[in-house]
């Protein structure tokens, strides 16, 4: 079973290709979060969690979701983290998570995808994004082969910088940066409601043609990247940054 959480579609894209290669089912964690019910997952195949990297670890919202879900059948758990460069020491935290919920940790592997955290970083243009995605294809196929053969993902070397990033930096990241106070919609907003539908936490409301964010943001960038008119901004820095979006609506 392939389970994914995704804001701009990077992790969704990887999950769908893993599922295709393995002939396996796909579960949208986004949908489960939005429905607000504890998920019951039953699979005789390994569980493969495909999620983005937030401050060199798995997103906290996904960690909480896994802790609340019920898993039946296979206890083997693989983790695929999409990232722009490194996932730091994320494997250590995923291993601890598995131990606490009764899953068998089978490894964590990064897949480099286009940078999409435009609230903080510059993002590559459309052509560069396409090239990065193309380079990710064989990497995803490699990971699918390991899962299909029942082999663990190889351990990756971790240095002090990785531990610092996934430790103290991750702890500071959420209170310092993860809030929605800077999100706003310009006059280009057509009140289509796409951002409301895309938000996995149900944090955005549309009333009288106006958007409002309500404080439960995880900075997935689904709203800003998926806006069809480019109306949503996060402060002044995002105005000229490319909005990378691979999201497939019908599979959300």
UniProtKB/TrEMBL annotation:
Q: Which residues form the 4Fe-4S ferredoxin-type domain?
A: 179-209, 217-237
Keywords of the record, alphabetical order, are: Iron, Iron-sulfur, Metal-binding
Q: What PROSITE patterns is this protein classified in?
A: 4FE4S_FER_1, 4FE4S_FER_2
Q: Which SUPFAM superfamilies would you find in this protein's record? A: 4Fe-4S ferredoxins, Flavoproteins
GO MF annotation list: iron-sulfur cluster binding; metal ion binding
Pfam families, from UniProt? Answer: Fer4_9
Q: What is this protein called?
A: Flavodoxin
List the source organism. Answer: Enteroscipio rubneri
């Amino acid at each position: 079973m392939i389970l994914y959480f995704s804001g701009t579609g990077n992790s969704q894209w990887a999950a769908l290709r893993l599922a295709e290669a393995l002939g396996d089912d796909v579960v949208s964690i986004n949908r489960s979060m939005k429905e607000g019910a504890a998920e019951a997952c039953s699979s005789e195949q390994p569980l493969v969690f495909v999620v983005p990297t937030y401050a060199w670890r798995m997103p906290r919202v996904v960690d909480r979701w896994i802790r609340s879900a019920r898993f039946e059948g296979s206890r083997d758990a693989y983790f695929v983290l999409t990232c722009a460069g490194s996932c730091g020491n994320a494997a250590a935290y995923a291993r601890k998570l598995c131990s606490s919920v009764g899953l068998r940790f089978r490894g964590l592997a990064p897949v480099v995808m286009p940078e999409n955290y435009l609230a903080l970083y510059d993002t590559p243009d459309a052509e560069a994004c396409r090239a990065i995605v193309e380079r990710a294809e064989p990497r995803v196929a490699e990971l699918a082969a390991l899962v299909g053969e029942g082999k663990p993902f190889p351990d990756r070397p971790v240095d002090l910088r990785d531990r610092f990033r996934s430790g103290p930096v991750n702890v500071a990241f959420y209170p310092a940066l993860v809030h929605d106070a800077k999100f706003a919609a310009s006059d280009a907003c057509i009140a289509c409601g796409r951002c409301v539908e895309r938000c996995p936490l149900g944090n955005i409301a549309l009333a009288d043609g106006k958007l409002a964010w309500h404080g439960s943001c995880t900075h997935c960038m689904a709203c800003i990247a998926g806006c069809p008119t480019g109306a949503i901004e996060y402060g002044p820095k995002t105005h000229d940054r490319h909005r990378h979006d691979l999201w497939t609506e019908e599979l959300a």
